[in-house]
Amino acid sequence: MLMPREQTPNLTLPQLGGSQFDLASDDGDLGTVVCFYRGLHCPLCATYLKELDKLTPKFGEKGVKTIAVSSDGEERTQAMADKIEASNLRFAYDLPLQEARDWGLYISTSRGKTSIGIEEPALFSEPGLFMVNKDRSLYYMSVQTMPFVRPHFSELLGALDFAISNNYPARGEYQGAV
Question: 93 and 16 in contact (C-beta within 8 Å)?
Answer without folding.
Answer: yes
